[in-house]
Design goal:
- The complex is a heterodimer of chains A (480) and B (336).
- Chain A is α/β, with parallel strands linked by helices and 480 residues long.
- Chain A has 17 helices and eleven strands.
- Chain A has helices spanning 3-14, 19-30, 47-59, 71-74, 94-102, 149-152, 162-172, 178-181, 183-191, 200-218, 265-289, 301-307, 309-322, 333-338, 360-370, 372-380, 467-475, and strands at 34-41, 78-83, 116-125, 137-146, 294-299, 344-349, 384-389, 396-403, 406-415, 421-425, 449-450.
- In chain A, strands 2-3-4-1-5-6-7 form a seven-stranded mixed β-sheet, sandwiched between helices.
- Chain B folds into three domains: 64-122; 135-187, no CATH class; 191-335, no CATH class.
- Helices cover 68% and strands 1% of the residues of chain B.
- The chains are: A alpha/beta (480), B mainly alpha (336).
- Chains A and B meet through helix 15, strand 8, strand 9 and strand 10 of A and strand 1, strand 2 and helix 5 of B.
- Strand 8 of chain A pairs antiparallel with strand 2 (18-19) of chain B.
- Chain A: This is YcjX family protein.
- Chain A: InterPro entries: YcjX-like.
- Chain A: It holds the Pfam family DUF463.
């Protein structure tokens, strides 16, 4: 090998080549010109649709049409927006997603199974002020990351040992509906001697059963959220990898774990857990989840109302535990350069178009109930938070019906399952936690709607609900 | 499930029973809905009427009597004048008659305009009060009446077009607060800009006039004259019928507002306008006086805008004031 070639590989390895790029992005970060927005949400909470809708609206934001509450757009200060996603290692399939929504009949995007990234560059005119001395026009780089929501639930596992994880899972599996479904599996676990050597097939069999169990719990009518590890549900590029052979011990933990045989089930599980944390979660966290500046947490409140108390409690627990994995606090200039923290968080109740407009405020209040704990902690760290009911892509139209001589506002849209047009008053969203006897009654009927076709031409404010206010809250102060 | 709940059960309707949302006012014939049982819909309570303090009837009666007496006396004098004219010569009499008729019709027109203007001004105050309450309301549907009032108020004014456009763009999902913010931002934008330009122009004018006028007492007259003209123009821009009475009412309100503006606010304004920068460095005493007069005009104008606008402006007034101050200083230093 010639010397120059060696030198080249050395340079590549040491990362010197990327140094100028790193420096540039660091300086831009410091000047708040490069923003990483964390789009957080459990699976099926609408991350992909949010990202594509926001990107689509921002890409046409120079026309001042679709985002009336986003100040820089309303003031006509955005000159142009450019999509730089191709520079990202895994670009977000924006064209494909939008094509699916523009097709006839349109369809919601499939579940995300891999990580991808949108990068947008917004060119804007500054308002007259102190920053004007830096030049009349400036550019804001906005990074949005899309990923399967299941993976997000792995993040809390990083701070736990295998033992702690099992201890956390045990009470969960003692409550309904997990307890009923997992009865057989628990009985099986009770017969196992964890410390004696076991065969490979026994081990993989145990884990395969756990995986089936998780898949059952995720589906309706249970629709649970706190299902760890997430890769078992959405393996991504790790399909059939031995790393995914993993499950918790939900019976009493064995006493003298130090004496466990290296081939015993306990030792195997503990090894698998450590390997999973080190090789799967940590790289994911370190590459993508550390350096965020702003965060939007998308929550599908209507799902919990449809599925009842167990689903609500589980989602509340899942959200509050995963939000601990992010770093919150005010960032000074230096901190922004080296170790940014999330300084502004927006909690968004998605699918606001699935309830009538007079229920949006109730949806806000219900969301506040759900994320109360996490929000309090953020406020302690002096982080700005806000709750908002939004819909990234509106699938219904408002209508009014006369019923028994009274006007009733309702929704009109196409059912997601059979494409039939319906008119529906889906019920009122409660502002306080419903009592146990109120759950599972026929109080709510939130139907999933199919999307309305998105025009290929310019979008209008009626294509979203409060997406502009979300953008204003998250980005408005950066575009001054 | 017990019947103690106040919530409403979900209903699925057949799509034929729907009415287009915009035609809510048009009565639709009742039709059978085969799907569901009887529903009770809790009425959305209308917002409480905002009561504006009514004038005391006694002082009003006094005013009426006084004006009536004055009008009677003037009428008697006019009749005597006409009789005297006809006595002198029929031609003189008819000429006088024409002049008097012209004067009376002019006066009537002015009074009508003034009454209209002051009624509009009172309406604006009411809109402001109700709007301020709605501006923080996350409720839904209460602003419909307010928007209708707004539309009626500005029907035949220069604002009607932009207001109509903005109202037609309102989305069905907006709650009351969003509707008001939307209108505040999108319907009144062009008008605000026009009014601010007007205020700026007059402030600079009066600043320059005072700086270059030779007599001190003349200054005050100048400033008063410019201010009155400005009030009239601002009122016209916001679609209020211009008239002496309107102008007088507006002036009263503005002066009241200025007098009772918090001392801190005043100090802040003065600080930001005069001391905050090196603006005043290099200004002579006369130019300083000019700047003061200009700033006074500007503050009067901005207050007048506040009075004429149906919604509170949520931008900072101090930034506008300092902008105007900069404009005046620029003009003064160029001229010197």
């Amino acid at each position: 090998m010639s010397i120059s070639k060696r030198l080249q590989t050395l340079m590549e390895r040491s990362g010197i080549r990327e140094l100028p790029a790193h420096l540039k992005s660091g300086v831009e970060r410091g000047l708040e010109q490069r923003i990483k927005l964390a789009v957080t949400g459990l699976s099926r909470s609408g991350k992909t649709v949010f990202i594509s809708a926001l990107a689509r609206h921002l890409l046409q934001s120079d026309q001042d049409r679709s985002l009336p509450f986003f100040t820089p757009v309303a003031e006509g200060r955005i000159t142009a927006t450019r999509n730089l996603s191709h520079q990202a290692p895994a670009p977000f399939p924006l064209t494909e997603t939008l094509a699916g929504l523009q097709a006839s009949p349109p369809h919601w995007p499939d579940s995300t199974d891999a990580l991808s990234e949108v990068r947008l560059a917004l060119r804007y005119r500054r308002t007259s002020g102190l920053t004007r001395v830096l030049g009349e026009e400036s550019t804001l780089y906005l990074d949005l990351i899309d990923y399967p929501g299941e993976w997000l639930l792995d993040l809390p596992m990083l701070s736990m040992s295998f033992k702690q994880w099992c201890q956390q899972q045990q009470p969960l599996f003692e409550q309904a509906p997990r307890a009923q479904l997992a009865r057989e599996w628990r009985d099986r676990q009770q017969q196992i001697d964890w410390l004696v050597p076991a065969s490979d097939t026994e081990f993989s069999h145990l884990c395969a059963e756990y995986r089936t169990l998780l898949q059952q719990l995720r589906k309706p009518p249970y629709s649970l959220s706190l299902l760890q590890p997430g890769r078992l549900l959405m393996p991504g590029d790790l399909a059939n990898s031995p790393l995914l052979n993993l499950c918790p011990i939900i019976t009493a933990l064995p006493q003298a774990t130090e004496t466990a045989d290296p081939d015993s089930l306990y030792a195997r599980l503990e090894r698998a857990y450590t390997a999973y944390c080190d090789q799967v979660i940590r790289p994911f966290y370190q590459d993508h989840f550390r350096h965020f500046d702003r965060q939007i947490v998308l929550v599908d409140c209507l799902k919990t109302l449809n599925h009842g108390e167990a689903c609500f409690n589980d989602m509340q627990l899942a959200l509050n535990s995963l939000l601990h994995s992010f770093e919150y606090g005010r960032s000074s200039l230096l901190r922004r350069l080296f170790k940014p923290k999330i300084g502004k968080v927006l909690f968004a109740a998605t699918k606001a178009d699935h309830v009538t407009a007079n229920q949006h405020h109730n949806l806000d209040c219900f969301l506040q109930l759900m994320i109360d704990d996490a929000r309090r902690e953020m406020r302690f760290e002096q982080v700005d938070t806000r709750c908002l009911a939004l819909s990234s892509l509106r699938s219904t139209t408002a209508a009014e019906a006369k019923l028994d001589g009274q006007h009733l506002s309702c929704l009109r849209g196409l059912r997601k399952d059979n494409g039939e047009e319906i008119a529906l008053f889906p019920g009122e969203v409660p502002v306080a936690l419903p009592r146990p006897q109120d759950w599972n009654s026929d109080r709510f009927r939130f139907v999933d709607f199919a999307p309305r076709p998105l025009p290929a031409g310019p979008l209008h404010p009626e294509h979203h609900i409060r997406l502009d206010q979300a953008a204003e809250y998250l980005l408005g102060d950066l575009l001054r | 499930m017990t019947d103690t709940h106040k919530w409403q059960r979900p209903v699925e309707l057949s799509t034929d029973t729907l009415e287009p949302e915009t035609e809510a006012s048009q009565p639709a014939s009742a039709r059978d809905i085969p799907l569901e049982k009887a529903q009770t819909i809790p009425d959305q309570a209308e917002p409480d009427e905002v009561t504006t303090p009514s004038r005391q009837p006694r002082s009003k009666r006094l005013w009426f009597t006084l004006t009536g007496l004055v009008a009677l006396a003037a009428g008697a004098e006019l009749v005597r004048l006409l009789a005297w004219g006809f006595d002198l010569h029929p031609l003189v009499g008819s000429a006088l008659g024409v002049v008097v008729l012209g004067l009376i019709s002019l006066l009537g027109l002015e009074i009508r305009r003034g009454l209209k203007g002051s009624r509009q001004l009172a309406n604006v105050r009411q809109l402001q009060a109700e709007g301020a309450a709605l501006m923080d309301a996350p409720t839904h549907g209460h602003s419909r009446r307010w928007v209708k009032q707004l539309e009626a108020q500005y029907q035949h004014t220069p604002l009607a077009n932009s207001l109509q456009t903005a109202i037609s763009q309102l989305d069905s999902s907006y709650n009351d607060r969003e509707i008001l913010h939307y209108l505040n931002r999108h319907a009144l934008d062009a008008t605000d800009r026009k009014a601010q330009q007007c205020v700026q122009r007059y402030s600079i004018e009066s600043g320059v006039l005072v700086a270059f006028s030779p007599w001190a007492s003349f200054d005050m007259l100048l400033v008063a004259w410019r201010n009155l003209r400005m009030l009239r123009e601002v009122a016209t821009i916001y679609g209020l019928a211009p008239g002496l009475l309107t102008q007088w009412r507006l002036l009263k309100q503005v002066l009241q507002n200025l007098a009772f503006a918090g001392a801190s606010e005043m100090a802040m304004d003065a600080g930001s306008a005069l001391l905050g920068s090196s603006l005043t460095a290099g200004l002579s005493a006369r130019a300083g006086q000019g700047l003061g007069a200009g700033l006074f005009t500007a503050r009067t104008g901005l207050t007048a805008i506040k009075m004429c606008r149906p919604l509170p402006d949520n931008r900072q007034p101090s930034s506008q004031l300092s902008k105007i101050a900069k404009g005046i200083v620029q003009r003064l230093t160029i001229k010197q």
